[in-house]
Each structure stands twice: as structure tokens, then as C-alpha cells.
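Researcher: We're teaching a course module on how sequence relates to structure. For the next exercise, students receive a sequence and then see the predicted structure as C-alpha cells, so they can try to spot secondary structure elements on their own. Here is the exercise chain.
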Amino acid sequence: MERILLSGKKREIFGKKSKTLRKAGFLPGIVYGHGFKNLAIQVAKEEFLKVYRQAGSSSLINLSIDGHRPITVLIHDVFKHPAKDEVLHVDFYRVRMDEEIRTEIPLKLVGEAPAVTELEGTLVQNHDTLEVEALPSALVPEIEVDVSSLKTFEDQIRVADLKLPEGIKVLYDPEEVLVFVTPPRSKEELEALETVTPAKEEAELVEELNRQEEAQSSAEETKDEDKKEDS
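Model: And here is the predicted structure for the students to work with:
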């Protein structure tokens, strides 16, 4: 599969001043990896979002910095605003093709579960991604999970049940449950749920988001400065 190309530039703006980059349509980022020197960069926000939608965190990307020969990277971490779901900062991991790496691969549910279509149950997915270890060349954009085997409320799909691509090792317990179906809620259970006060829930959510936003801002500034010193 042909690799996606992303362009970036070396970055000279750090910490709280990174807000000026975002206002200009850029995202601050860091490139790092085993045996490589850290490098602070910036990428065009819209271009990055397009690449991220295609590549996710498990597809190799060719990253060209200041027009130089591209290097091979993975999108390692994407930091978002806790309330607005807006991307604030990006970490790229520069890979060595001969060295195994750890990353996450999205799970894609396929098929229909009879316990849902016939018994009116609710499909529950415990994990959206799998943490894996593999050589970069063995990575795939997603791993399919066929839910057609879920015929009763006792059926489960575990890590051990997956058909994994060659060269990929899952770092979860083989008995870890990934997907199952729960029975429909009883009338009593539904009535109990309706007694929760929406206003109280909303107030608690707003308070939690404010705490997360303050923590994210502080963590981002500290991380940026630490990696600047390493570069």
C-alpha cells in the first residue's frame, strides 16, 4: 500500500505561544523515536486531519520536514481539547523498519449478531482498539471482528478468537473479552434510569471538563518544554 505523504516545518514557537500557531492554521508537534533526536515541528491543521482520517495510528506515513527527504513515522499521540474535541498537539514516532514497535490498531465490527437482530439485545464493545507489537511493515489500518457468532447472551468474542494478520502480536490476555451482547433492559431498570436528574449530570460534566482543560493545558506546556530541551 502506498504511504501517505505529510509535510511539516521545524518549529520555533513553544509553550503558551503555540496558540498563535493554531490561530494561523497550524498544529504544534514533536517527532521522536528510538535512536533519533527529538525534533519540534508544525504541520498544517487541515492537511494533518485529512492524513489522520486516512492513516489513524497504525499506518506508516512519509513525513517531509522543510522539503527534505521524507522520514517514516506513525501518528503516536493526538492531544485534544477536552470539551471541543479540537486537536491541540501531535506526537509523531519515527520508526526503524527492522525494530518492533508497540501501537494500537482499531477494531472494525463486521456482520450482524443474531443476539441483537433476533433477541433484541445490545451489542457491547469493550475495546475500540488493540494494543499490539509488530514490525512496522506488518501493521494494518484495522482488524475486523465478525460478530455473527454472537447468537446468545452467553456468547463472547475474546482476543483468542481473532484472526490476526501475520506478524502481529496482541498485548492483551488471550481471554480478554472484546465483544458481547446484553439482554434488553427490564421495565423496572428503565424506570430507575429515568430517575437520574439531567441537570445534575450536566453540571458534573461541565465541572469535570473544566478540570480536564486546565490539566491538559498544563501538561501540554510541560511536555513541549521538556522535549524542546531534549532536541
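Model: If you want an answer key for the exercise: The first strand starts at residue 4 and ends at 10. The two ends are 32 Å apart (CA to CA).
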